[in-house]
Amino acid sequence: MSKPSPAGLAPRLSRAHRALSVTLAAASFLFGALSATPASAAIAPSFDARLVIADDVFRASGSMSAQDIQAFLERYPGVLDVTLAARRADGTMQPVSLLIWEVAQEFNINPKVLLVTLQKEQSLLTRTAPSQTTLDWALGFGCYDGSTPETRDPKFRGLGNQIWYAARALDMYAETTWRPGLKRTICINCVTTPYTPDTEFVAENLSTFKLYVYTPHSHGPTPDIHGGNYLFWTLYWRYFDEGPLASAALKPVYRFYNKSNGTHFYTASEAERYTVTKKWPATFAFEGVAYRVNTANAANSVPLHRFYNKKTASHFYTVSTDERDMVLAKWPATFTYEGAAYNVSSSADNAAPMYRFYNRRTGSHFYTESDAERDTVIARLSGTYTYEGVAYHVGR
Predict the structure, then answer these.
(1) DSSP one-letter code for 32
(2) Quick one: 65 exposed, middle or buried, by C-beta within 10 A (0-12, 13-18, 19+)?
(3) Which of 273, 263, 268 is nearest to 300 (CA)?
(4) Which of 45, 40, 39 is nearest to 243 (CA)?
(5) Fewer Cβ within 10 Å of end Cβ, the chain: N or C?
(6) What percent of the chain has pLDDT over 70?
(7) What distance in Å separates the CA atoms of residue 304 and residue 185, rounded to the nearest whole number?
(8) What is the DSSP letter of 4?
(9) How do 197-202 and 263-267 pair as beta strands?
(10) Domain range summary for the chain, segments of one domain joined by +
C-alpha cells in the first residue's frame, strides 16, 4: 500500500534546505546558549501497580487522529505503517492507523493504549518481519495460557479482529462491577514459580483494574520479574512524553531547534512531531514538550495563527487577526499562511505569558515561555534580538 502523507512540513522543509540564503553561522552561535537549555522532558516516576493509567487518559479517544497514528507508526521500524487489515464490520481492507482510530472512537479508548498494547504483546511497533501468526494474534486477545493458534477461537484471529476485540474488551471490563476497594486476583509470579494468586491486590481506579483483567500479571518478588502492566507502563513513557497519568486535557506543544538557521519550531500536531523527528533529524533537534495547553480551560479559545517564512525557513505565530491580515496582504510572496496551529489565551488570568523576540539578522521570530530564557536573550543578545513583549498567554 502507499503510505498516507501526514500534513505539515514535508514540502516546506525540503525547500528550506535548498533555499536558505541568510547568514546562519552567527545565528547558530548566538543560539548555542539557548539550545543547550532544552524544553521540559517527561521523567517517569516509580512504578506503582495500583495506578498504571489515569481514567481520563484511558478514555482520551481524541488524543490522536488517524493521521497522527499513521505518522507515529512511520516513525518506528515496524511494518504496521504499510500493513492493511480487514475491518471487522465488513471486511474492508484499511490501513492499521485508520482501524485503530475507528475502534478508539467506537469504544472511547485512547489510541495510545492500543499502540502500547501492540508493542507490549508482540513488539509490532519495532518488529520488522513479523510472521502471519504474530499479526493474527497481535494484541494477545483470546490467547489464554497454554493455548496455541490451532486451539484458539478463530473469530479472534486476524489483525483487524484483534484491534476490535481488544478495544471492546478494554471498554467493557468491570465497567458496571468495579467499585473502590475491589480486589483483583492476579499472578504475582508467572515466570519462575507456578501460578500464585494475590487476592489482596486493589487497583486505585477502574482503568488500572481493566488493564489487570486484560493482563493479570503483577511484578514479582525479584526486580527482574515485573509482569505485563509494568511493561505497559514502561512502554507508555517511552513512546509518549506525557506518560499515562497526566491530565488528558493538557495538550503538549513540542519544540524543535533548527540547527541550520538557529530558529525554533513549535507544533501541537502529533503527526508533524513524528514526521519531523523521523525525516529531518540532521536539521531539527527535538527539544521535547515546550509547554502544555489546557484544553479544558475556556480561556484557551483564541486561535494561534501560523505562517511559514519562505525566505528564512522559519515560522511566525500571532494571535492578532489584524497582524494575520496585514501579513497576508503585504507579504504573500514571503509568508505562507498555515492556518490556526492551536488555541491559546489572550488573557493573563491564570495563564503563563509567551514572550516574542524579533531576530534582526534573519528576519525570524523566537518564542519562549521561560523567564530565564527571556532574560538571557535580553541581557546577552540584544544586538541581534528585539524584545516584542508578550505575544499571547497559555491558560492553565
Answers:
(1) H
(2) middle
(3) 268
(4) 45
(5) N
(6) 83
(7) 49
(8) P
(9) unpaired
(10) 10-41+246-395, 55-239
Question: For 4-13, 174-183, 221-230, 234-243, which range has the lowest pLDDT when averaged over its residues?
Answer: 4-13
Concatenate the DSSP letters of all residues of 42-110 into one string. -------TT-SS-HHHHT-TTSS-HHHHHHHHHHSSSSGGG-EEE-TTT--EEEHHHHHHHHHHHHT--
Cβ count within 10 A of residue 266: 21
**How many Å is the Cα radius of gyration of the chain?**
24
pTM of the model: 0.78
**Cα dist from 208 to 182, 248, 320, whole Å:** 12, 16, 44
Other beta carbons within 10 angstroms of residue 347's beta carbon come to 14
**263-267 vs 250-258, strand pairing mode:** antiparallel
Q: What is the dihedral of CA 62, 63, 65, 68, to 10 degrees?
A: 180
